[in-house]
Amino acid sequence: MNSMNHSNLQHFGELSLLLNELKNKGNLDGAIFAYRDGGLIIENLGNDFKSKEFVSMCASVLESAVGIGEAIGNQEIIKVIAELEDKTILIFECDNNTFLILIINRESKVSYILSKLEGIIQKIIKMY
Question: What stretch of H or E contains 104?
Fold first, then answer.
């Protein structure tokens, strides 16, 4: 499923505002909320970004991390960090069906993001 169902459409605007606020206050390059099967729910990225392909790759990375966690007996929520030359990708499992991707840069306010993250994920899940 690549879009939100009808019962959740009323929350789409609120979810968009929440991701915009997170992006702006955290000075992020982008924020994406997606299905764990790789389907895009909502994103806040530039026009030149291939978000569908990126989400699919991140979903694969998340599922691999879940498998690794299960192999070593870890049942906690999964977080994945991928560091690139000038960007860092943070992937957070939200629930059994969804995940959040944050794209940070050197100027991002990481402490702000991490201090608000649990509450933001809970808000996203409630809105979704």
Answer: strand 98-105
The alpha carbons of the chain give a radius of gyration, in whole angstroms, of 14
102 phi, psi to nearest 5 deg: -120, 135
Contact 102, 121 (CB under 8 A): no
Residues 45, 103: contact at Cβ < 8 Å?
yes
pTM of the entire structure?
Answer: 0.84
Integer Cα distance of 26 and 15 in angstroms: 16
Residues pairing with 100 in the sheet: 33, 92
pLDDT in tens, 56-76: 999 999 988 888 888 887 767
89-113 CB burial, b ≥16 within 10 A, e <16: bbbbbbeeebbbbbbbeeebeeeeb
